[in-house]
Design goal:
The chain has about 450 residues and is an alpha/beta fold. The chain is about 40% helix and about 15% strand. Strands 5-4-1-6-7-8-13 form a 7-stranded parallel β-sheet, sandwiched between helices. Helix 1 packs across helix 15 and helix 7 crosses helix 8. It starts with 16 loop residues before the first strand and ends in an 18-residue tail after the last helix. It binds nicotinamide-adenine-dinucleotide (NAD).
Length: about 450
């Protein structure tokens, strides 16, 4: 039987404090924390954030009703967020932000007191899954199940210490090596047995996710590896009625790809080649320099074009598409990634054309508002009874999780329409279908 969603006043209000716990206090997390602290002090505006800056139209264009999303939905307030997390290094968020070099010293110093207070708890970590990293701040236990229980204890202590009402967990740790589903991932029973016997195929991120879902805490996966997208953890999410979403924050080159490709496809232009290459020099880049971790990223990066261009539906336009993605670790560039795309397209009578894109972006500057929006929307979804896979948040992901039998929607504009219509649905407004016929004809 399908679940019912709470709408309007029936959504549980966002009262009390929202605890945000992140496995991985690195570049993205610390950029989010510093930004939120700065915004609380009125030092910066929340640029790039749908929940804080976004507005949507309600009703007909002639009504002139364009309202702020945060005034329409009962979202948690930035004032009510308390950050915490786990990392394999003992560095406080202040030290980690300094090390990441995403933000200027002045921006870190302006929120130094708040950032110094965030000290990571000991991580659940296994080098088998992140070969390029090692750190001393790691839990030791007799089994993976005991590790999960220790994480649950951390969450409980954090809630007590800060008088927290609700919690969301968002993975912003390093990308783990690609791990396909095996027998242990097929049922919750097999998974729990696997935790007890420390089955090697259960990844650290899956131990965090198991802990979160067991405590009815929404779990967001900001990295490309597989975590909750396995039958066992989805079974737990269903059993406990918890929201899950992922994977891989949509930033940088893939963000642009999902902006450009829908335009090319809408005009029915052909594509026979799309070559994408990147240089980046942060810790994320170093981790992705390992072939097994890159495989997780490659899978999420490669998938987007097929679902937008649909070669099976338009074989004349896209059946020969050659899509290649490269990430090159190049330390001098730090977090300031540079990407190049060469797109070979063809038009009327098969005549070839080329598009070149050179994006000089800042990865964590693009990722931080995405992470904030996901946290606030996942918390809202949980209070609205929207549990299980949150496909409506596809807008924020490179490789959105979807229900069984569905293909993901990767077109950014289709994703935006989906998200906005869900917001309208939640506040008992009509969805907007964009036919525009109402202004000219009687379509009742
Ligand atoms: N920066 C972006 O724009 C962007 C975009 C999409 C996805 N991502 C993903 O987000 C994640 C974080 O990116 P980042 O740039 O902040 O990386 P980062 O290397 O700066 O930070 C990751 C942190 O996670 C820690 N860590 C690793 N394994 C851990 C574990 N098992 N438990 C707890 N902590 C652990 C590391 O010590 C590090 O401090 C990566 O997986 C990355 O692929 C980043």
């Amino acid at each position: 039987m399908k679940k019912k969603i709470k709408r309007g006043d029936a959504i549980f209000p966002a009262k009390g404090k929202l605890g945000v716990l992140v496995p991985g206090i690195g570049a993205v997390s610390t950029t989010l924390f510093a930004g939120v602290f700065a915004m609380r002090k009125g030092l910066h505006k929340p640029i790039g954030s749908v929940t804080q800056t976004g507005k949507i139209r309600l009703g007909l264009r002639t009504n002139n009703r364009i309202e702020a999303i945060k005034d329409l939905l009962p979202l948690a307030n930035l004032e009510d967020i308390v950050f915490g997390g786990w990392d394999i290094f003992e560095d406080s968020a202040y030290d980690s932000a300094t090390h990441a070099k995403v933000l200027d010293t002045a921006d870190i110093e302006a929120v130094a007191d708040e950032m110094k207070q965030i000290k990571p708890m000991k991580a659940v970590f296994d080098r088998q899954y992140v070969k390029r990293l090692d750190g001393p701040h790691v839990k030791k236990a007799s089994s993976k199940m005991v590790l999960a229980e220790l994480l649950m204890k951390d969450v409980e202590n954090f809630k007590q210490e800060h008088n927290i009402d609700r919690v969301v967990i968002c993975w912003a740790g390093s990308t783990e090596a690609y791990q396909a589903d095996t027998d242990v991932h097929q049922t919750l029973e097999a998974f729990e047995q696997g935790l007890k016997s420390s089955n090697k195929d259960i990844t650290p991120s899956q131990i965090y996710a198991y802990a979160a879902l067991s405590m009815k805490i929404p779990y967001i996966n900001g990295a490309p590896h597989i975590t909750t997208d396995c039958p066992a953890l989805l079974e737990l999410a269903e059993k406990n009625q918890v929201a899950v979403c992922g994977k891989d924050f949509k930033t940088g080159q893939t963000l642009l790809k999902t902006i450009i490709a829908p335009g090319i496809q809408s005009r029915l232009l052909g594509v026979n080649g799309w070559f994408s290459t990147n240089i980046l020099g942060n810790r994320d880049g170093e981790v992705l320099d390992d072939a097994d971790s890159f495989k997780s990223k490659e899978v999420t990066k490669l998938g987007v074009l097929d679902s937008i261009l649909k070669p099976d539906v338009y074989p004349d336009l896209y059946k020969d598409l050659y899509h290649k993605v490269r990430i090159n670790y190049y330390p001098p560039r730090g977090d300031n990634k540079e990407s190049w795309d060469n797109i070979d397209i063809f038009g009327w009578m098969g005549y070839p054309m080329q598009i070149k894109v050179n994006f000089l972006c800042r990865d964590s500057i693009l990722a931080a508002p995405v992470m904030l929006d996901l946290i606030l929307f996942a918390d809202l979804s949980q209070r609205a009874g929207m549990t299980g896979i949150l496909e409506w948040l596809s807008f924020f992901f490179k490789s959105p999780m979807v229900g069984e039998g569905l293909y993901p929607e990767n077109d950014l504009f289709a994703q935006r329409d989906k998200m906005e219509n869900v917001i309208r649905y939640l506040i008992n407004e009509e969805p907007i279908h964009h036919t525009g016929l109402d202004y000219y004809y009687d379509v009742t």
